[in-house]
Amino acid sequence: MTAPTVQLGFCIPIEDDEQLQEVAHRSADYTLWDGGQVGGKPSWLNPQHIPNSIPCLNCSSSSMKFVTQLYAPVDFPDDDRAFHRSLYLFACATCLQNKNHVNKGVRILRAQLPANNDYFPNMENKNSVEVEEVNWQQHTPDAWNVNLCALCGVKGKGKCPLQQLYFCGSEHQKEYKRRGDRSILPLSQLVVEEEPPVAKDTTKSRKQLFSNVSEENHDENGSEDDENDDDGDEKQVEAGFDGANGEPGEDEDLEQEDLNEMIGAATNLVSQDPITMKFYQRIQERPSVRDQCLRYTRWSSMEPLWIQEQYRPTSIPACEHCGAERKFEFQLMPQMLHYLMTLKEDTDKDGKAAEDKYAQVKEALEQTESWVQQAPPERIPPALMDARDSAIERVQKELLKDVSQQDLDWGVVAVYTCTQSCNKTSLDNLGAYSEEFAWVQPSLDS
């Protein structure tokens, strides 16, 4: 029996527009796709039937943040229904802060296409040069007259006459006007080390999810096989993904407190929970531990690498569309949060701008209040009092909005998907996208 493997996903920054065009589904040439992306706005596999909205199932907020997407095709022996297949994960920062609501604060969507479809050319019959020559655009929402929300990337419902941009609703229209694209999570590419050299061939094939990642081998009991450790480590160093600056062995001497900081753990919590100890031991055995953002092993016998004993699922619901069993496919690691945090420079700028704005409003209100107290009541225009009360209310709302801009937080997020990868036959609010099941373990210090 072949032992299952775990593939490790890594984040690297996207340096320029040229690199961005080869991330996810922005290119019509699917031989360029590899892994996926973290943060930013989603790149839709089906560009025509995009979700109208993706509200939080717990608080109904439309402010769920796009976290990551993976390109994960499946080769079924009987047909090619999942020749292209992508998974999208969205999270509600507010509900992830509450242990009672964490599992309602994450949604996972799946989309898939056969080899011959209306959106992407079959590269077995066409090569990338031919696609470029005809300026292929069928993979873009614009080709299907679909306008995307400037903030979240789902289907836009209307165009703001002032901003000249499309939005999915008034909430995102106001949020974009207030904060611009700073509300969007920082964008990274989910890729790993270079693939081994292969002989050039005129026939192109698609890249499988993480076809070029380092693999952790496990025996049937889930223990790791270190037989190929040296080769895997060497490739990571050569690719420059061993730590922030590519220096070999940077994380080999990673201290316990560094790991504590990464996963939000107090030392006493770690020592008391054998599951947490196992988590520590597993991630410490690999270099570039800070960059290991995702673990992938589709429908194998393996369980997720849990971060603690508590908050584990007792059962996984079957697929609502076909009734097939759902099994574990991948998990997000706490290290991914590092790449999703708002850049400190932008945060400082926002804070300074807000501070200046509130100082000006405060000064105006104080001058108004001083005049009101000194003037006879009959000389105070009612409109002035209404304007004062309205200004105070607006400032209060803005302050509450700033408080609500919470960071995402989790211990691990485990995703379970339909083992038949069934096709969705009808369109609804999610368009051509099916919903799968995600389980969130909260961080150790939440």
From TrEMBL:
Residues 195-254 are annotated as: Disordered. Residues 222-233 have a biased composition (Acidic residues). This is Pre-rRNA-processing protein TSR4. Pfam families: PDCD2_C. Residues 276-345, 400-441 form the Programmed cell death protein 2 C-terminal domain. GO terms for cellular component: cytoplasm. It comes from Fistulifera solaris.
